[in-house]
Structure formats: structure tokens, C-alpha cells
């Protein structure tokens, strides 16, 4: 892609949901926990959804949370805000018309998020919250692509069936843009942290990022490795594209495991630990 072409030009005609006013209100609250709780509590549906999420096994809380103020105090502003953004993103896309099974799409995103966060805890990585947010957001470009292109589902299924694992190459060949680029734009509009925006942008370019010595951020590389492990564990290609083989994982897994300091046997143990921790509920 020509680097002189802006994101806006590349994504012209593709719906990018704007950041809701609720997020802007939160940002104006600063570090005032009471004000933050009051703003979130304005929307009962969102509040109930946040409480349900934070009480799920993935957060591993000993005592259940019963209110938004308690959630903010227990989990912190950043974590609650990240959960809120993903809920609002889903809500903002609820009216998108496409042939994509949106319920299945969001279920698969939640599964990846839960497993990614659990992987971080199993490996003692201090980025479980970031991994959870990335799991929810990494494929957010898929629904907007499906809404723009009527044959997107078919192209995506063919992309996941490519034995070379080059998923975004297939999309780019058909549309001149791919879901990782669309997702990157959404992540930026929604003010996700820079490292998460870059992870969304590069989540199908993991080998290149790992091999790029000019990228000094170990956080970006680690998050991408965790994401790819999570996608494979939940069998995302089958869920999204009816592909019974994870060709992308077959291609990049040696580099992912090497960077993560894991052998194939270690990864099998990790899969078992994730399954046990989440009771297979993913």
C-alpha cells in the first residue's frame, strides 16, 4: 500500500463508528472516582453489563462486585473504561446491516479476550487487562468491512483457507483494504492506548513485527503473541470462517513460541491450564 495514502482515503466509504459522548464525559472526570461512577451509572444497561463482565471467572475476583462505584474502586479507572469502550462499540455496531452473524462474531471476540487475559495470568505477564481489551477490539474492523462489502464473508472464508496464512493479503486483493486497517482506524478514533492500536493494526503481521529489530516495544510483541495463542486456543478460524485448519498459526507458531519462551509441550500445558481455569467456557 502506498504510504502516502491516508487512513481516511483508504477507508473511504467504510463506516467508522464515532466515539460516544459517554467516553468523552468520562475523560473529563479525570481521577475523580465518584464522578466516573456517576457517569457510567447513567446507562443502566451498560452498568449491568459491566458488573456481569467483572464478575466473570476471567477477572478472578474473590468477592463479587455489586455496583459500578465498587467496580471502579476494585478494578481501577483504566480497566473499567476499557470494558465500557468495548460494550459501547458493540452497541454502536448493533444497527450495522451485513450478512455477518454478529452474535457469533461478538461471542468469538469475548472468547479470545477471556483466553488472552487468562494466558497472561498463567505466564505471570502484567498485561492481562490490555490483553483482554485487545481480544475484544482486535477484529473490530470485521463488521464494518462486512457492512461495506456484500461478499466479505466469502472472501474472509477464502482468506482463512489460504495455506500461506496471509489473511489480510486476500482481503486487500479484493477490496484494496483489510479489516486490520479498518480496526486500527476505529481503535484510534476510540482513543485506545497507542500500543493497543498498533496491535490491532498488526495482528495479522505478527512474524514481521517479531522480526523487526527497530520495534523496541516488548509489550507490543508480547501482546501479539498472547493474542495469537488465544485465537488458536479458541479455534477462531473455525468460528469466523469455517476453516478447520489454523493455517496462520501453523505458519507463525514457531516464532510466537520462541519469543514467548515456550516449547510445544509448554504450550500444550498452557492450553490445559486455560481450559481448567475457565472450565472450558470460551
TrEMBL record:
UniProt lineage: Bacteria, Pseudomonadati, Pseudomonadota, Gammaproteobacteria, Oceanospirillales
Top-level taxon of the source organism: Bacteria
InterPro entries the record matches: HDOD, RNase_Y/CdgJ
Pfam families according to UniProt: HDOD (PF08668)
Annotated coiled-coil segments of the chain: none
Source organism of the structure: Aliikangiella maris
Residue span(s) of domain HDOD: 12-206
Name of the protein described by the UniProt record: HDOD domain-containing protein
Amino acid at each position: 500500500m502506498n504510504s502516502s495514502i491516508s487512513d481516511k482515503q483508504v477507508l473511504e466509504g467504510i463506516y467508522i463508528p464515532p466515539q460516544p459522548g459517554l467516553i468523552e464525559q468520562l475523560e473529563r472526570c479525570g481521577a475523580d472516582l465518584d464522578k466516573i461512577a456517576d457517569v457510567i451509572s447513567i446507562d443502566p444497561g451498560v452498568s449491568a453489563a459491566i458488573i456481569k463482565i467483572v464478575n466473570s471467572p476471567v477477572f478472578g475476583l474473590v468477592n463479587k462486585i455489586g455496583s459500578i462505584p465498587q467496580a471502579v474502586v476494585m478494578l481501577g479507572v483504566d480497566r473499567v473504561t476499557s470494558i465500557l469502550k468495548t460494550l459501547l462499540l458493540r452497541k454502536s455496531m448493533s444497527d450495522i446491516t451485513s450478512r455477518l452473524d454478529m452474535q457469533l462474531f461478538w461471542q468469538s471476540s469475548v472468547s479470545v479476550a477471556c483466553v488472552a487475559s487468562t494466558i497472561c495470568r498463567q505466564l505471570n505477564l502484567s498485561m492481562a487487562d490490555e490483553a483482554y481489551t485487545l481480544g475484544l477490539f482486535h477484529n473490530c474492523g470485521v463488521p464494518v468491512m462486512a457492512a461495506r462489502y456484500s461478499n466479505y464473508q466469502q472472501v474472509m472464508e477464502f482468506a482463512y483457507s489460504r495455506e500461506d496464512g496471509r489473511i489480510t493479503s486476500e482481503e486487500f486483493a479484493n477490496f484494496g483494504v483489510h479489516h486490520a486497517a479498518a480496526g486500527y482506524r476505529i481503535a484510534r478514533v476510540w482513543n485506545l492506548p497507542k500500543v493497543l492500536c498498533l496491535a490491532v493494526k498488526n495482528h495479522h503481521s505478527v512474524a514481521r513485527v517479531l522480526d523487526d529489530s527497530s520495534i523496541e516495544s516488548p509489550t507490543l510483541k508480547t501482546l501479539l503473541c498472547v493474542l495469537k495463542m488465544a485465537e488458536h486456543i479458541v479455534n477462531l478460524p473455525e468460528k469466523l470462517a469455517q476453516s478447520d485448519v489454523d493455517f496462520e498459526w501453523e505458519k507463525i507458531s514457531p516464532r510466537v513460541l520462541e519469543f514467548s519462551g515456550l516449547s510445544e509441550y509448554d504450550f500444550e500445558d498452557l492450553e490445559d491450564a486455560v481450559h481448567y481455569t475457565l472450565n472450558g467456557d470460551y
